[in-house]
Specification:
The protein is of the alpha/beta class and 215 residues long. The protein has seven helices and eight strands, in the order αβαβααββαββααββ. α2 runs parallel beside α4 and α2 packs across α7. The protein is globular, with a radius of gyration of 16 Å. The N and C termini lie far apart (37 Å).
Length: 215
């Protein structure tokens, strides 16, 4: 066994990752944290998809560095991923997600628009085995995971018309600590799936109130 993963091998089975490609769509506040954590737990093939560039505010809420300003987010995130995991096979897509874009067996949807979530889900739901969606508003996190038929039935009920969404993106009120917690909860659901454990289809964590609700 690779000694690098010795302390987590009971929690993250490396053999399950050997032939798995993982896609992260959107590497903003939550998506960047997810990408870095996936690399750290031993994902061997990682695909990053995003069209946006790093701005000054992203150095506070999304964990980007001053030197990243002006770079594509996928490029800046990919740089850190490769430094932490030199052997990783990394695919960078500097574009919006397109329905015909090939994706991995596991997909993390980390975009900030409910309409974009719906469009991505429609495109990949029949070709991915694990799906996770992280939503964040202020200090409230919602984590949705799909790994079975019940999850496939439930997830569409969490989508709604864009006109019903709150004004502004879900990251308009965000902090790095909330994004880190959200990223960790998403990767935890992925690790449960790798171990053959049931995933939580719908969980909400209110940091301020200290309340965790699992549907």
């Amino acid at each position: 066994m690779n000694s690098r993963f010795e302390r987590q091998h009971d929690l993250v089975p490396q053999e399950r990752l050997a032939d798995l490609t993982v896609t992260v769509i959107g590497v903003g506040a939550i998506g960047r944290q997810v990408a870095l954590q996936l690399a750290a737990i031993g994902v061997q093939r990682l695909q990053l998809i995003d069209f946006d560039m790093v701005e000054l505010t992203n150095t506070v809420t999304q964990g980007y560095f001053q030197d990243d300003i002006g770079l594509d987010k996928v490029e800046a995130t990919g740089n850190v991923v490769q430094r932490s995991s030199p052997g990783i096979v990394l695919e960078i897509v500097k574009d919006r997600f397109r329905p015909k874009q090939p994706t991995g067996e596991a997909v993390f949807c980390c975009v900030d628009s409910i309409s974009a979530r719906g469009a991505i889900w429609k495109a990949v739901k029949d070709r991915c085995r694990f799906w996770a969606d992280g939503r964040m508003q202020g200090e409230v996190i919602r984590i949705l995971a799909v790994a079975d038929e019940l999850g496939r039935e439930h997830y569409p009920t969490t989508l709604f018309d864009q006109s019903e969404a709150q004004e502004g993106s879900c990251t308009a009120r965000s902090t790095i600590y909330t994004a880190n917690i959200a990223g960790g909860l998403l990767v935890h659901q992925f690790a449960r799936w790798l171990r053959g454990l049931p995933v939580d289809r719908d969980a909400t964590f209110n940091l301020l109130a200290g309340e965790l609700m699992v549907a």
